[in-house]
Amino acid sequence: MARDYYEILSVGRNADKEEIKRAYRRLARKYHPDVNKEPGAEDHFKEVNRAYEVLSEPETRARYDRFGESGISGSGSPGFQDMGDMGGFADIFESFFSGFAGGSGMGGQTRRRGPVRGDDLRLDLKLDFREAIFGGEKEIRINHMETCNTCEGSGAKPGTRPQTCNTCGGSGQVRRATRTPFGSFTQVSVCPSCGGQGQVIEDKCDDCSGSGQKQVKKKLKITIPPGVDSGTRLRVSGEGDSGQRSGPAGDLYVYLFVNEDAEFEREGINILSTIKISYLQAILGCHLEVQTVEGGQELAIPAGTQPGTILTLEGRGVPRLGNPVSRGDHLITVQVDIPTRISPAERDLLTKLAEVRGDRLKGGKEGLFGKLFQS
């Protein structure tokens, strides 16, 4: 039994789009095959991707909420409002009721298969932390099916062409009359000689063996927009598999996964990092150079800064996806380094400072400063 997609992503059925996206990113990082080598991780990764594909698209999600898995198994809804979207059910219906002896209307109708759109393809692409923030061009390599140039997709050797199937006369279907106690019925099935194509290829193209397509390795340059994150999906139109019988090519979908950075962390469109200062710098204040994704920048540490204080560099975060002019902030958490050992000179100065402040010191060298002084 198929698992519930909401359960796979660990979200409620009323979860909004952003919550679903966050859950997908978290699980995609956890179960990606390049990261998680445990048995079953790859299968779970595929489940997570499938769940996100369904729940991230409002129309698909609505059909899933109403009809479950059956509502997204084909292009049409299970309400059967359009006979053309009923797939196998329509074939069965036609098979049994395609005509009857002396019958009206439904008998004698045939269908020729027309152009077929090519399959969509998927590619997982890893990006460095800064590549995801600033975007840019990226070269990728794909394997996809292209229309054979030798036969121009016909599958026939140059100078020849497919011939009308003698078995079905080009209809792609064969009929068989059956007598029953209720009358004579005509059963329609796919022609076994041409496979429903209505044509047969006697002299096949040497380059594609009659398929009309060839697998080709191809290099593409794609543009990564600024601000992408793990789970972002890019669509490259027309770079999927080529269509058959002059049908349009499918699309290539590039799923992005962003590597973690040793220095920075990302939270939405904000960047997080930490800086460590001495207790004297925290008391007196100072100016320090800190690292951002764009390089070094001076940061003012106010006097009296407390441990855990968060300082903000405005506009130094991640560009907003689709609006790169708008950027998040760089949030820097201040850590204060309290020494465990001090020199005699430092101890004397700190003791005098304590006397000036009126702070009580216990036990001389056995007190706080005494412990710092010991080595």
Automatic annotation (TrEMBL):
Give the signal peptide as a residue range, or say none if absent: none
Q: Give all residue intervals belonging to the J domain.
A: 4-68
- Swiss-Prot/TrEMBL cofactor(s): Zn(2+)
Q: Where are the CXXCXGXG motif repeats?
A: 148-155, 165-172, 191-198, 205-212
Q: How is the cofactor bound?
A: Binds 2 Zn(2+) ions per monomer.
Q: Where's the CR-type domain?
A: 135-217
Highest taxon of source: Bacteria
The text the record gives for the protein's domains is: The J domain is necessary and sufficient to stimulate DnaK ATPase activity. Zinc center 1 plays an important role in the autonomous, DnaK-independent chaperone activity of DnaJ. Zinc center 2 is essential for interaction with DnaK and for DnaJ activity.
Q: Tell me how this protein assembles.
A: Homodimer.
Entry similarity comment: Belongs to the DnaJ family.
The identity of this protein, by name, is Chaperone protein DnaJ
Source organism per UniProt: Prochlorothrix hollandica PCC 9006 = CALU 1027
Q: What is the lineage of its organism?
A: Bacteria, Bacillati, Cyanobacteriota, Cyanophyceae, Prochlorotrichales
